[in-house]
Specification:
Blueprint (H helix, E strand, L loop, with lengths): L15 E5 L6 H14 L6 E5 H8 L3 H18 L7 E4 L4 H11 L4 H6 L1 H10 L7 H4 L1 H11 L4 E4 L4 H18 L8 E4 L28 H10 L19 H9 L3 H13 L4 H27 L2 H29 L6
Parallel strand pairs: 1-2, 2-3, 4-5
Helix pairs in contact: 2-3, 3-13, 4-8, 4-14, 8-9, 10-13, 11-13
Bound molecules: tryptophan.
The site of tryptophan has 14 residues, from β1, β2, α8 and β4.
Amino acid sequence: MSAATPSTNPSPSIVVTGDRTVGPLHLGHYAGSLQTRLALQETHNPFILLADTQALSDHQGDYRKVRQAVIDVALDYLAVGIDPQKSTILIQSMVPELAELSFYLMNLVSVARLERNPTLKSELRAKGANSEISAGFLSYPVSQAADITALRGTLIPVGEDQLPMIEQTNEIVRRFNRMVGEPILNECEALLSNTTRLPGLDGKGKMSRALGNHLALSASADEITQAVNKMYTDAQHLTITSPGQIEGNVVFAFLDAFDPDTQHVAALKAQYAHGGLADSVIKARLNDVLQALITPIRERRAEYAQDTDAVLSMLLCGSAKARQTAALTLHKVKTAMGMYYF
Ligand code: TRP
């Protein structure tokens, strides 16, 4: 991970990131974004958005699920060690300035440009040709640009799939600043985490809730063991003595991501590739590693879950704090456009 400060912006980076609230987080989030956030909160007081408004852009009918996921994701954050003293966790819908800013930014993007956003395109493809696309869904990249710019974000830790959102945010920022002739909004840059993306338990593509190949951060001991036992290794590794493939082997991908003893993993790989190491041995190791990682997370989560009122009041505080920043940005935007009439 590089903690580079954008060259155009000499002041300390302002970190803004977030998750759509569609369900509890999984190990893919831990490998990709949560570990990066844990490091960043020691130096940057990041804003972390529970993006419920964005989740509703394609789950409007599932508003109950989105609501529940706000609590679930907040519990996951706390359980992995996101500390509300060091990170500002906010609920997107509790900062109405984000929605108001989106409305102005929406006029700076053409529908054709939105339709060209590669991430949006692949999401549309996944929905199928005949599904109805709401105006809200088509414009969620604009709402994301509003999240980032309202909170004055300059450094945005995201996965690769979000790079088009950052690019589009910067286009909007430049357009707005050019229109009003003042640098009111900040440009931002992405911070990609250096963990290779975690494959799904089935080895097909990346781990994702939508594909159902995920392991929840709150998985029980049995669920962990079952997931490891079902994992794909190397279909050609028929006997213990035959050489095994490391490349594409899900168990090794997980060991690379989570086993703190990298030397031991290297030794296991060498032996497996050479022949003479049973799948059951590497699976037993992975089971130990994942139990050691997830057990304390699950236990802390259960403790926080006993007092959801405390969690909600933490979110209220974070949202109020974020609101101050967002209100100031919105004030600058409206002032620049002469929108104060009295
Ligand atoms: N689009 C992000 C996701 O799919 C969530 C998100 C919403 C976000 N607003 C953001 C990420 C602002 C970074 C910055 O998870």
